[in-house]
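> call design_seq(struct)
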């Protein structure tokens, strides 16, 4: 997720049971031209593996060039973004607008698969808008191009992130292709993940927003599905456990980006960690102003003294 799944957060998700992580979407043009900031965003730590490097763009040549250049970074696989609904990306001919043109999808996928010496995955939405859902057609095209797995987000581009995801499209794609299908959209608990697998037959479950401020969700899901790795926490974390994960995340951020930027970028994550906690409105406001690790630690300790009165949040 752009602006969210940087290296520290990916590492944390892996430690808490995620089977695989994806980079933020990265511009194929930027990587092909060795643009400094894009290149830095493509970096990852060994401990994150398996990691998929996700590319967005519109020109097949740029995808091929990016894939070749990124071989040097040695990601475990590449992922092609055919789902981003952001106006800026769509205006540039990338992300979900490509769903309207399966031939263009094929040109990009063929170019990337040909250039890559490792698996190439793809991520799609159900279609551009209600009435033109063509996920099955696009998935078949992708499979024909040699894509190794397909993630399906059950929303159209027109829906952006609103309404609810339609999992039936994931089931239809699963029935139509033989490569692994990764179900995505609105998995907010281990129960949701089990229901998605039950209803769609998908091979893997992809979790986006529900991992924000709750990376232990992957371990919970692995427990419910009876596979994968369990993280260090069992069950829903109470406040001290939650604060410990927040602290671990903060340390990783500061290690990767330095204290000033690390704490600044941690603010939104800290907001998510404390969002659902009773009595945490003031803590949240304070965390949004924090500038140093010491300040954050003091704020958490102060809240911890009062939080002892509160029971842990209910199970999912
Ligand atoms: C802030 C934000 C950034 C996102 N960035 C990306 C991205 O870079 N690449 C991508 O494939 N999907 C991206 N997504 C979409 C998610 O991966 C996912 O498909 C969507 O949120 C639905 O799944 P969820 O309900 O589990 O969050 C983003 C979503 C959000 C909210």
């Amino acid at each position: 997720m752009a602006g969210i799944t940087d290296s520290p957060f990916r590492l944390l998700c892996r430690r808490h049971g995620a089977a695989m992580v994806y980079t933020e979407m990265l511009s194929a043009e930027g990587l092909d031209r060795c643009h400094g900031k894009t290149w830095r965003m493509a970096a990852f730590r060994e401990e994150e593996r398996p990691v998929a490097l996700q590319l967005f763009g519109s020109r097949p040549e740029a995808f091929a060039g990016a894939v070749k250049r990124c071989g040097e970074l040695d990601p475990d696989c590449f992922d092609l973004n055919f789902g981003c609904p952001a106006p800026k990306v769509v205006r540039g001919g990338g992300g979900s607008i490509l769903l309207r043109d399966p031939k263009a999808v094929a040109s990009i996928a063929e170019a990337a698969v040909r250039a890559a010496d490792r698996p190439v995955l793809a991520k799609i939405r159900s279609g551009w808008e209600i009435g033109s859902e063509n996920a099955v057609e696009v998935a078949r095209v992708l499979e024909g191009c040699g894509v190794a797995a397909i993630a399906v987000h059950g929303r159209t581009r027109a829906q952006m992130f609103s309404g609810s995801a339609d999992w039936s499209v994931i089931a239809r794609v699963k029935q139509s292709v033989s490569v692994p299908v990764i179900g995505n959209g609105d998995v907010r608990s281990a129960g949701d993940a089990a229901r998605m697998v039950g209803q769609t037959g998908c091979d893997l479950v992809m979790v986006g927003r529900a991992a924000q401020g709750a990376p232990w969700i992957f371990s919970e899901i692995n427990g419910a599905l009876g596979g994968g790795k369990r993280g260090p926490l069992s069950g829903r974390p109470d406040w001290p456990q939650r604060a410990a994960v927040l602290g671990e995340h903060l340390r990783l951020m500061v290690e990767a980006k330095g204290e000033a930027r690390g704490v600044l970028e941690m603010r939104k994550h800290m907001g998510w960690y404390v969002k659902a906690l009773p009595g945490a409105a003031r803590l949240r406001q304070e965390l949004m102003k924090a500038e140093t690790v010491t300040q954050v630690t003091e704020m958490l300790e102060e809240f911890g003294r009062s939080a002892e009165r509160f029971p842990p949040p209910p199970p999912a």
